[in-house]
Input
Amino acid sequence: MDGQETTDDLGLGIDPTTGNFIADPTQISTSETEIVPGGFFDNLTPELFQEMVDIFRKSKNSGPSHDTYDGILQDIENNTLSSDYIESVTNISDMHLESKGIDQDKAVEIIYAVLESFSGELLKKGLVNGIELRFDLVNVQLPDDNPLGIESGEYCVSADSFEQYWNIFTDKQKDWFSRHVFRGESYATWFKDNLSAGKYFSSPIVLYNQSFDLMNIGLKSNKDPKEIGLEYLESIEPSSRQDLYHIGSLNHEVAHDLYAYLIHGTELDEKWREVVDQSGNVTNYAQYWEEKNSTRDYDENFAEAIRIYTTIPRYMDSERFTPIQKFIAENFPDIKAA
Output
């Protein structure tokens, strides 16, 4: 998943920038008590602050991600997840494509680039049944100690509403929120226990609004990519970096599904681990997870490797990345280098 990349999509777990734990999205906020702004929001009137809190409360667990999450949870509870992988693959008849809050020509360009990177058959094998560009929503992951004083969890706020508050936020407030905006989501990694038990489900890849997170803000302001942990974008013209990053974020999420269904728990898993151990972590984001959890994250390394392989393959033109390129080319020939 793609949170602060540092992702992505990060996912449910730990915010890679702040180290805060991201809560389970099934938690439901029940408190409707009035909250008074503290020192962090002392530039807002109590009325404006309460209005913002109410908008966040109404947006909790309201996005497409939670609809999918609820559906999968219901199938698990009813024991209706398929135990037949081939059947699950063949049941995907059409790829659901959706875009909101983004120029349609740009949406077509992004989705086409993703479909060019992966064959339709490979997407089915990863049980990807759709691609959703939900730029009409800002996905904010609030930790327990958030300055809004409300429950932790996933809040899908209308981009128009969020922008209204963003425009009156101080730099300090913008910086805090930019570190808790979630860019994209894949669902396979949320339910690895079920996958290991031989239970399968298809799900879409979702990309949310890309205007308010730390990485996209940095790219839009033409910061040196290396300064924000995106050194693989240094060779790209500044005007093209953000679009390429969006495509890479979607491909990163697709790769999580491929890892879950085609690598995790198989012989390829051991081979991939050997490759990564030989080459080292692919990006700063993958390195972060190793340092945070004191163990290497091979799933995130695969997602980051596919991100780069499908968007900026020349970044891998070094002896260090040769084993990674070879692994992808030999085992996933349907993934096309850009």
